């Protein structure tokens, strides 16, 4: 039987849902115009008045909001409420530039928890579950976001945060953790540490579900994780500017459900900004429909995805986006060919001899781009004949060439020699000085 | 026949400074003696092959240190240290259509030459070598060298 957190909203007939969205869109546009100097100025410059937005299709008249806008108005220049109405701040890591600050009113925190409560219910998390949250707690939204969502559905939270991996595995066994939430790369690392401790995730723990996100991971990686650890692995999506982790797939694992009463989702051409029809790959754009402290209008999320508005087999009518396979700006251009790290992961995880850890190194040698994919030798793939190892390297290189249309160097490296990650992993090292 | 098979330790290693010292340290601490040793190198990686007095212990020590390591069945052939010794062995195996995947030799304290062989068909190789009066050594001999 399929469970819903709020069946009335989640299964709302499309027509009603559209009407609700339309009304909320008109409200939020008026709200930001009245409460944010930033948006008033932006709308005025674009010659848009709140009254111009009457229907959902009018959304394309509104200007986009970019991450740069949040940086330019650092720390709180885009907020719509005075500081005393804020319940919390989160701050993004700022690895790619100035950090961005996101504020939340009490209602914003509640809406965030509700969004995750619906998502967690849709994958079967609830009372009786013990959820180990191994996302970082603190300024990062992953830990605390899921924490509140999990409490909302009545699950028992084990707030381990990331790191101290052996202890995490001990607690997982001793307390009977049933759900783990972390980045997929941290989970792989955990499974490896567990193995070294003589613990099999499959046989020696009660783990049944993993909630993985904060970095792209492929369908093939999912199959690997599910096969080797015996859990169901679900994708969780969100981004700090929109609150944090917000949405997951349902048990059908067929796209991420975006709650339409809270968020309006579009997919646009990353170059022209034009709206793309359902089914076409483009950049994800989200408008928050109920946020109070930091509402965002047509925010360019930067992730690559495809929109699906068909109601899901689970009965939920809200639109879905395909699993995120990378960010628009993750794309590498190698000798003029576009390459996404996600493509490489998909190819590698389809080859049984290749382990879970890999790294992509891009360099420019004699004016020519050279891409090297390093993979770790596994016990199962090791042969003491040099030829067998060279054959394996060739096999991987030709599988990559077929998909990428690009010659790739493949290097087998020692087991354990590639970096392991407790949070977001860094898969690409670009040494080119462009 | 089984006792004529020698367990060789094979190890995957990146071609980087300090790798060998690391392995040697592990063996010293565990009290493992290396009898024969060779590196097959291929660009950025190499395969280290070793015959040791305690192969199971060596395997355990290396595996626990995180190395990718396997035990491979090889043959140890005792050769007279005179011209033509190797030719005879190669000839006998060739006639039976047994391929030598790789081979390396070392000289013992007793001034015998020992040849380590990995062959395509180890059982057939033992048969044909013994039939031709070629002496194969066993793990006990390796321990006592």
**Tally of helical segments of chain A:** 12
From the N-terminal CA to the C-terminal CA of chain B, the straight-line distance is 21 Å
Largest sheet of chain A: 6 strands, mixed
CATH-defined topology of the largest domain in chain A? Rossmann fold
Estimate what percentage of residues of chain A fall within beta strands: 15-25%
Question: Mind summarizing the main beta sheet of chain B?
Answer: 7 strands, antiparallel
Please give the alpha-carbon distance between the first and last residues of chain A. 55 Å
Q: Mind telling me the CATH superfamily name of the largest domain in chain A?
A: ANL, N-terminal domain
- CATH superfamily name of the largest domain in chain B? VC0802-like
Category by helix and strand content of chain B? alpha+beta
Task: Name the shape of chain A in a single word.
Answer: globular
Report strand % of chain B. Answer: 35-45%
Would you count the extended β strands of chain A for me?
19
Low-confidence spans of chain A: pLDDT under 50, at least 5 residues? none
Model description:
The complex is a heterodimer of chains A (434) and B (145). Chain A is an alpha/beta fold. Chain A folds into 2 domains: 1-328, Rossmann fold, CATH 3.40.50; 331-430, 2-Layer Sandwich (GMP Synthetase, Chain A, domain 3), CATH 3.30.300. Chain A has 12 helices and 19 strands. Chain A has helices at residues 7-10, 14-35, 37-46, 67-72, 106-122, 141-152, 165-175, 184-196, 201-204, 219-229, 341-349, 386-404; strands spanning 86-91, 101-105, 130-133, 156-158, 179-182, 209-213, 232-239, 244-248, 256-257, 263-268, 281-288, 299-308, 320-321, 332-334, 337-339, 358-365, 368-376, 409-413, 428-430. A 6-stranded mixed sheet of chain A has the order 4-3-5-6-7-8, with helices on both faces. In chain A, a hairpin with a 4-residue loop joins strand 7 and strand 8. Chain A is globular, with a radius of gyration of 22 Å. In chain A, 45% of the residues are buried. The model of chain A has no long low-confidence stretch (mean pLDDT 94). Chain B has 145 residues and is α+β, with helices and mostly antiparallel strands. Chain B has 2 domains: 2-73, VC0802-like; 74-144, 2-Layer Sandwich (VC0802-like), CATH 3.30.2130. Chain B contains 5 helices and 7 strands. In chain B, helix 1 (19-30) packs across helix 2 (55-64). The longest helix of chain B is centred in the first third of the chain and has 12 residues, at 19-30. The two termini of chain B are 21 Å apart. The chains are: A alpha/beta (434), B alpha+beta (145). The A-B interface holds A 377-379, 382-386, 389-390, 411-417 and B 8, 10, 12-14, 40, 42, 44-45, 47, 49, 66-70, 72, 101-102, 118.
């Amino acid at each position: 039987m399929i469970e819903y957190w709020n069946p009335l909203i989640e299964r709302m007939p499309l027509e009603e849902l559209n009407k609700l969205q339309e009304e909320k869109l008109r409200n939020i546009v008026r709200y930001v115009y009245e409460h944010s100097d930033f948006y008033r100025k932006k709308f005025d410059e674009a010659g848009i008045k709140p009254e111009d937005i009457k229907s959902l299709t009018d959304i394309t008249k509104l200007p986009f909001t970019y991450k740069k806008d949040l940086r330019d108005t650092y720390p709180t220049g885009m907020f719509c409420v005075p500081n005393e109405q804020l319940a919390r701040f989160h701050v993004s890591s700022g690895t790619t530039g100035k950090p961005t600050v996101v504020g939340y009113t009490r209602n914003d925190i509640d809406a965030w928890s509700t969004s995750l409560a619906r998502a967690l219910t849709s994958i079967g998390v609830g009372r009786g579950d013990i959820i180990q949250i191994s996302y970082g707690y603190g300024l990062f939204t992953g830990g605390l976001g899921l924490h509140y969502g999990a409490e909302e559905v009545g699950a028992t939270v084990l707030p381990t945060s990331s790191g101290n991996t052996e202890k995490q595995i001990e607690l997982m066994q001793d307390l009977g953790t049933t759900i783990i939430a972390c980045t997929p790369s941290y989970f792989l690392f955990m499974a490896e540490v567990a193995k070294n401790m003589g613990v099999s995730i499959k046989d020696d723990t009660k783990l049944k579900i993993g909630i993985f996100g904060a970095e792209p991971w492929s369908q093939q990686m999912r199959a690997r994780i599910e096969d080797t650890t015996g859990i169901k692995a679900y994708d969780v999506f969100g981004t700090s500017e929109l609150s944090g982790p917000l949405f997951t797939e349902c048990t059908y694992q067929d796209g991420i459900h975006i709650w339409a009463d809270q968020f309006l989702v579009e997919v646009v051409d990353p170059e022209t900004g034009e709206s793309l029809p359902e089914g076409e790959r483009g950049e994800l754009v989200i408008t928050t429909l109920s946020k109070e402290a930091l509402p965002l209008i047509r925010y360019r999320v930067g992730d690559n995805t495809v929109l699906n508005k068909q109601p899901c087999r689970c009965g939920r009518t809200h639109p879905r986006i395909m699993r995120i396979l990378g960010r628009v700006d993750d794309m590498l251009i190698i000798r003029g060919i576009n390459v996404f790290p996600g493509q490489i992961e998909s190819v590698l995880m389809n080859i049984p001899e290749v382990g879970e850890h890999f790294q992509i190194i891009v360099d420019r040698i004699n004016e020519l781009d050279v891409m090297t994919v390093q993979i770790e030798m596994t016990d199962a793939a090791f042969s003491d004949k040099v030829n067998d190892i060279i054959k394996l390297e060739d096999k991987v290189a030709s599988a990559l060439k077929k998909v990428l249309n690009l010659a790739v160097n493949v290097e087998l490296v020692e087991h354990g020699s590639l970096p392991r990650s407790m949070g977001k992993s860094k898969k690409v090292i670009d040494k080119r000085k462009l | 026949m089984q006792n004529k098979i020698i367990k060789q330790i094979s190890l995957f290693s990146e071609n980087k400074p300090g790798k060998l010292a690391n392995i040697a340290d592990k063996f010293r601490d565990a009290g493992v003696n290396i009898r024969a040793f060779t590196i097959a190198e291929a660009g950025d990686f190499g395969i280290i092959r070793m015959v040791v007095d305690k192969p199971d212990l060596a395997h355990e020590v290396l595996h626990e240190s995180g190395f990718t390591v396997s035990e491979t069945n090889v043959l140890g052939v005792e050769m007279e240290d005179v011209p033509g010794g190797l030719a005879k062995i190669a000839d006998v195996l060739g006639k039976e259509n047994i391929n030598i995947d790789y081979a390396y030799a070392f000289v013992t304290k007793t001034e015998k030459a020992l040849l380590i062989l990995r062959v395509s068909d180890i059982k057939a190789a033992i048969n044909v070598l013994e039939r031709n009066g070629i002496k194969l050594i066993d793990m006990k001999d390796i321990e006592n060298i």
